[in-house]
Amino acid sequence: MLTAIRLEDGTWITVGHKRDHGAREILAYRYLTFLVVVALAALVTALVLHSTKPLRRLAACADAYGRNPESFQPLPETGTREVRDVSQSFNLMRERICASFEERNRLMTAIAHDLRTPLTRARLRLEHLQPRAECDRLSMDLDDLELFVARGLDFAKSHKSMERQVPLDIRAFLQSIVDDVALEGTRVPLAADPVDGPLLVRARPSCLKRCVNNLLSNALTYAGSAKIRIFPEGDTVRIEISDKGPGIPEDKIESVFIPYYRLDSSRNSHLGGTGLGLSIARNMAALDQARLSLHNNPEGGLTARIVMKRFYRNAPAARSARIAG
Predict the structure, then answer these.
(1) Which residue pairs, CB below 8 angstroms and at least 24 apart, start in 262-269?
(2) The pLDDT value given to residue 19
(3) 280 and 217 in contact (C-beta within 8 Å)?
(4) What is the pLDDT of residues 290-314, one digit of tens each?
(5) Predicted confidence (pLDDT) at residue 47 exceeds the cutoff of 90
(6) Which of 21, 212, 217, 305 has its CA 20 to 30 A from that of 36?
(7) In a domain, 143, yes or no
(8) Is residue 86 in some structural domain?
(9) What is the rounded CA–CA span in Å between residue 233 and residue 203?
(10) Which residues fall within 8 angstroms of residue 102, CB to CB, at 6 or more apart?
(11) Pick from 201, 188, 217, 187: nearest CA to 280
């Protein structure tokens, strides 16, 4: 490479430079090395993701199984020998636990059915006893026993349902529940975030209605009022039933879903109850692959939150339109 510079007196000064061809080769070598490293990193990442895919699937299945063991389907026993062994062990554990649950449900159902006959005989005999004041007190005790029997049957039946899932417009569905409550003299406000067209979910109507009614009844019993709000969130729909009651201690929120568990100090124990309402509500929600949770409000009160998958009649087209929008 020659560089020529003209001076003030008209002469030229010329400087010659030898080009360093090695610099270009070194740069190319560095680029090639970088590309090889990136390719190897991508290959290793793909191998790691592929090898851990069964573990991620197992973790997701374990979470789903924990929410509703009796409606969970067995894991497919495919893949490498180690993966098949883990799947077989998981399915065997599931069968044993489900058998235990099934035995519990049969026991509760049998006890509840067998108790109905002596309770009916006791009530018939009570009508002929004197004095009436004492009979009235005994009648109230029989009412409590019958309530426990009925709730026990409801709980035993809440783990399974032969009802089919159908598309529901959740706004119209909840409005019908609110209208039924209004006929009994209680007004429950219902609000929903605006969304184009119907807001659909797939659910078993009777199960979802029982779930919402239990939560609504719980709020009205302990707080005297309630409100319902619907939040569309991407591919899910969130339903919130809020009250302004005493709330629940944070360390007891999950405990209230345990069958027959009751809070004596925080939720007005004199109002009674069997301790099965929230358990039945969570079981009913799980039948539709929905998640039910409780949250204390910052300003006071309690919110029951149901999260369900949103349903699209024409799923690919609907999702594409939503993403484009």
Answers:
(1) 267/222, 268/222
(2) 62
(3) no
(4) 999 999 999 889 999 999 999 987 6
(5) no
(6) 21
(7) yes
(8) no
(9) 18
(10) 70
(11) 217
Q: What is the pLDDT of residues 198-252, one digit of tens each?
A: 899 999 999 999 999 999 998 998 888 999 999 998 899 999 999 998 888 888 8
Give the span between the Cα atoms of 325 and 311, in whole angstroms. Answer: 18
Residue with tokens 């009979």: 135
153 shares its domain with 172: no
- What's the total number of domains in the chain? 2
Please tell me whether residue 96 adopts helix, strand or coil conformation. helix
For residue 287, pLDDT beyond 80: yes
Instruction: Return the structure tokens found at 221.
Output: 């019993």
CATH number, domain containing residue 148: 1.10.287.130
Based on the fold, state whether residues 187 and 130 are members of the same structural domain. no
| Nearest residue to 117 (alpha-carbon basis) of 140, 141, 149 | 149
| Residues 153 and 170 both lie in one domain | no
Could you tell me if 229 and 116 lie in one domain?
no
Q: Do 71 and 286 meet the contact criterion of CB atoms below 8 Å apart?
A: yes
Cα separation, 303 vs 294, in Å, equals 6
Task: Indicate whether 296 belongs to any domain.
Answer: yes
Return the pLDDT at 264: 56
Mark which of 109, 124, 157 sits at the end of a domain: 157
Is residue 112, in this structure, part of any structural domain at all?
yes
Task: Decide: helix, strand or coil at residue 269.
Answer: helix
pLDDT score of 68:
65
Q: Count Cα atoms within 13 angstroms, Cβ side, for 109.
A: 11
Out of 157, 181, 207, a domain closes at: 157
239 and 292: one domain?
A: yes
Q: Using CA atoms, how far apart are residues 233 and 142, in angstroms rounded to an integer?
A: 47
Both 280 and 146 in a single domain? no
